[in-house]
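Quick one:
INPUT:
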């Protein structure tokens, strides 16, 4: 973090000092977990559902925190505020404002945010110190926590922005005003919260509205709702995608025998071949988005293509592919799920299975996609039907009503009979797979995060030593 005195911290957050020396410098990171506090840092005391951070204030100071950001006196040096969440955002805004040489890149979308954020970070790291969130820290707490890691030498700050309500992204952009804003897609994730795709697009578009006139909006040319956001920004617009009029586009897209895509990256500055290490054709769009950001920030096309070829998956449980010693391939994509990402994962599974006489058996172990509102049953039915049309060898639907609807959709589409099955929970899925898997099979595991279906992948991997 950029060093601030406690007096400056208090001024930034509109707080008051309690037992703290105003001249004391905060030089370490801000932490919300007292076990992670480092000397010179600041401890933010949040009141959670089960734990009250204020109870750990003294422990944090003993560990080296110079003060606590708190909403009540805690018996140790503190900056007292009405809301620790709001104060964290204000403090992050102050730090980012002082980092005048840091280019802020923000991205949002219904699917692929974290994978694309990881790609962008790996590209930009080749050209300077880059701060980005681990995993999916994209809300009102994780977002400022990431921004507070900015230091005087930070060249790039890459921020992933999620939204569950209108105004969420507008708030996040007020903390880290972006120079480059990227919108990946508008799908049906959280449609139960927003009511329609158009409402989702309205919320996602808050990102491009926040851009300055000398900024850049990078928009998906292949998504009509995203493309339309060009009318909502005063910034320069760069389109990416496979559309012929995209500024950054992919041609000659191919998948190798393992399901990893290659393509020719074409930009106004030239073209270069790309071979991705990531699995699934959907990563072509993510790679184009990352490339558009990198080129906009001055990377050459050749450097960008080379960096894309070296980039891997940084965040867990997102198309995480592991081969067991017996040849079974486990694809753990259980971090989250919505209709768009589920379709992409199924297509990736089929491509990994291959074609012809050497085709491998493919298993789709799928759980509920949550927050789909009135469209939930129809969307689950559609995924079951798609599994049949893609010729997945066997669908294992895990859970209750939504899973049953998915499995019924598969039966109605293709009369699969024993080739689709409904099981009650992760343990039942593991038991079934252990009894029926054969060497060489490919197993995809995917559901919304709260379903906890990663337990299936972990159990399968525990059964064999990974290569």
């Amino acid at each position: 973090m950029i060093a601030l005195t406690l007096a400056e911290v208090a001024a930034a957050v509109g707080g008051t000092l309690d037992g703290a020396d105003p001249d004391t410098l905060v030089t370490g990171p801000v932490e919300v977990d007292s076990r992670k506090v480092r000397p010179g840092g600041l401890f933010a005391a949040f009141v959670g559902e089960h734990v009250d951070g204020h109870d750990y204030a003294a422990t944090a100071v003993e560990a080296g925190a110079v003060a606590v950001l708190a909403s009540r006196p805690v018996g140790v040096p503190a900056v007292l505020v009405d809301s620790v969440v709001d104060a964290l955002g204000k403090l992050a805004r102050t730090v980012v404002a002082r980092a005048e040489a840091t280019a802020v890149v923000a991205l949002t979308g219904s699917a692929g945010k974290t994978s694309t954020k990881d790609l962008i970070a790996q590209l930009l790291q080749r050209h300077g110190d880059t701060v980005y969130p681990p995993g999916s820290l994209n809300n009102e707490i994780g977002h400022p926590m990431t921004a507070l890691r900015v230091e005087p030498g930070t060249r790039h700050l890459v921020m992933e922005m999620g939204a569950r309500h209108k105004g969420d992204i507008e708030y996040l952009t007020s903390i880290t005003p972006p120079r480059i804003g990227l919108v990946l897609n508008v799908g049906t994730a959280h449609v139960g919260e927003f009511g329609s795709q158009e409402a989702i697009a309205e919320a996602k578009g808050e990102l491009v509205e926040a851009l300055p006139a000398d900024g850049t909006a990078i928009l998906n040319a292949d998504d009509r709702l995203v493309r339309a956001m060009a009318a909502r920004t005063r910034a320069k617009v760069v389109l990416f995608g496979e559309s012929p009029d995209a500024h950054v586009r992919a041609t000659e897209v191919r998948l190798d025998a393992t399901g990893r895509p290659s393509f020719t990256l074409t930009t106004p500055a030239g073209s270069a071949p790309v071979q991705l290490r990531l699995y699934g054709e959907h990563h072509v769009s993510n790679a184009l988005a990352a490339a558009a950001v990198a080129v906009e920030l001055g990377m050459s096309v050749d450097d960008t293509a080379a960096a894309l070829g070296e980039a891997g998956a940084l965040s867990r449980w997102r198309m995480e592919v592991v081969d067991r010693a017996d040849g079974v391939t486990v694809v753990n994509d259980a971090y989250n799920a919505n209709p768009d990402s589920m379709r992409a994962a199924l297509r990736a599974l089929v491509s990994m299975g291959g074609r012809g006489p050497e085709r491998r058996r493919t298993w789709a172990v799928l759980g509920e996609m949550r927050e789909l509102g009135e469209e939930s049953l129809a969307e689950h039915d559609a995924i079951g039907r798609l599994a049949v049309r893609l010729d997945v060898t066997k669908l294992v639907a895990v859970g209750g009503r939504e899973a049953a609807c998915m499995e019924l959709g598969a039966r109605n589409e293709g009369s699969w009979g024993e080739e689709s099955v409904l099981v009650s929970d992760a343990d039942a899925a593991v038991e079934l797979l252990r009894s029926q898997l054969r060497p060489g099979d490919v197993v995809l595991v995917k559901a919304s995060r709260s379903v906890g279906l990663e337990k299936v992948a972990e159990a399968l991997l525990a059964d064999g030593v990974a290569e």
